[in-house]
From TrEMBL:
This is 7-cyano-7-deazaguanine synthase. The keyword Plastid does not apply. One of its GO terms (molecular function) is ligase activity. Belongs to the QueC family. Its EC number is 6.3.4.20. The lineage of its organism: Bacteria, Bacillati, Actinomycetota, Actinomycetes, Pseudonocardiales. Keywords: ATP-binding, Ligase, Metal-binding, Nucleotide-binding, Zinc. It catalyses: 7-carboxy-7-carbaguanine + NH4(+) + 2 ATP = 7-cyano-7-carbaguanine + 2 AMP + 2 diphosphate + 2 H(+). It is an enzyme of class 6 (ligase).
Length: 233
């Protein structure tokens, strides 16, 4: 019997293309009380109806106490991997090229696989199919399949939308979303405010992208995106 696979899914700009890329596996969504949960539910429902996605929603864990002001929940992927390991042997958790989050990078996933295999008493693999692709390249792959732009725009990936159905335009996830879409010619994504006008673009990202804090490919995509809106990088 082949190992059972499951995709950690949030109807985001990474996990929705991943569902296609991986051949439409069973999907698992964790409602851990994240502040942008209701927007994620909306995106999940829209895409589930349109694509007949086999999806389980889990509410077995509440991490609201540990959500930081910037929306990051430390160790989130470690909790997810543990809970998903009850359900499957191969756990797809979508990281992309250049991700350096402590619990979402190739080394961390290799360590988690070893750790979980030891304690579960069977082979567990946690991995991402996109370690060699940037978000921009993932969007390009998706479009190259002839899949609809409309559904990319139906995805949700924002850490701080408030009660609005629209992306905030002022968080790291929005900035990355905008870059990957605009670099693929998609300029009509809705944001509450323009991501390129977010304070941190000037006060943090431009400097960090120039001084090597970020990998070259990420800086290049950032500068390319800014040039499309006339921001001098
Ligand atoms: Zn946002």
């Amino acid at each position: 019997m082949s190992a059972k696979e499951i995709l950690l899914y949030s109807a985001g700009l990474d996990s929705f293309p991943a569902w296609h890329y991986l051949g439409k596996p069973e999907a698992l969504f964790f409602d851990i009380g994240q502040r942008y949960c209701s927007q994620e539910y909306r995106a999940i429902e829209t895409l589930r109806r349109r694509w007949d996605i086999t999806l389980t929603t889990s509410r077995e864990l509440n991490l609201t106490a540990w959500e930081r002001p910037d929306g990051i929940i430390p160790l989130r992927n470690l909790y997810f991997a543990m809970l998903a390991s009850h359900r499957a042997d191969v756990i797809w958790c979508i990281g992309v090229k250049g991700d350096h989050t402590a619990d979402k990078n190739p080394e961390a996933f290799a360590q988690m696989s070893t750790f979980l295999s030891t304690y579960a008493g069977r082979e567990i693999r946690i991995d991402s199919p996109f370690w060699d692709m940037t978000k921009t390249e993932i969007v390009r792959w998706y479009l190259d399949q002839g899949l609809p732009v409309e559904d990319l725009l139906n995805t949700f990936s924002c850490l701080n939308p408030g009660t609005s159905p629209f992306h905030c335009g002022r968080c790291s996830a929005c900035l990355r979303r905008w870059i990957s879409l605009v670099n693929n010619g998609i300029t009509d994504a809705k944001f509450q405010t323009n991501p390129w006008e977010w304070d941190e673009v000037q006060s943090y990202y431009l400097t960090a992208m120039h001084d090597g804090t970020y990998p070259d490919h990420r800086a290049e995509e950032f500068f390319t995106a800014l040039s499309t809106v006339g921001v001098d990088a």
